[in-house]
Design brief:
With 177 residues, the protein is mainly alpha-helical. The chain contains seven helices and two strands.
Length: 177
């Protein structure tokens, strides 16, 4: 697969379009003279055809865009073992490194299911928040009922604890797919 990933689609497009244009026109159409490959007329045409047309073979966008494309391929094929990403010099070295870093940080864990247990645990905590709050209150009551423990707690900075009650965070991610 071909991809270039950035924080936004617009940023990915900006970073990749000129290099994609040169790659297609100078290398694929020029050097390789690949049959049926015509040069692009401008960089925007290249991005649109490679990443945003029906049957597009590349992803130029966000980690979520690449995750969606890989999941589409999994659905289409019934599953497969490995995704191979090609380095193509569409972007400069810094942006290419950042793209691959984002794939490693966000795409690989998501596709490999490495975040599922985290999401399940998070959901459990959200759904059982009252139990955790009651447990905290019971622990604090027990501490405060012991004169020495209460004094030590006050000496150590009051009734602060490692656990501070707070509203449960929200997430745009679904808890399961």
């Amino acid at each position: 697969m071909f991809w270039h990933i950035a924080e936004t689609r617009e940023q990915a497009r900006k970073e990749a379009k000129d290099g994609l244009f040169r790659w297609r026109n100078e290398y694929t159409a020029g050097t390789l003279m690949q049959v049926g490959v015509e040069p692009f007329t401008d960089p925007d045409q290249g991005v649109d055809e490679m990443a945003f047309s029906d049957g597009a073979s590349a992803v130029i966008g966000t980690p979520d865009d690449l995750i969606s494309k890989i999941r589409e391929l999994i659905e289409l094929t019934g599953g497969f073992g490995t995704v191979i990403g090609f380095v193509h010099d569409w972007a400069n070295r810094e942006n290419t490194n950042r793209s691959w870093d984002m794939v490693a940080r966000y795409v690989v864990p998501e596709i490999n299911g490495m975040l599922d247990a985290y999401r399940e645990s998070r959901q459990f905590v959200i759904e059982n928040r009252e139990s955790f709050d009651r447990a905290r209150a019971a622990i604090m009551n027990k501490i405060m009922s012991n004169e020495k423990a209460a004094a030590a707690l006050k000496q150590g900075g009051g009734t602060k604890s490692a656990y501070v009650p707070h509203p449960a965070p929200t997430s745009d991610k679904e808890t399961s797919d």
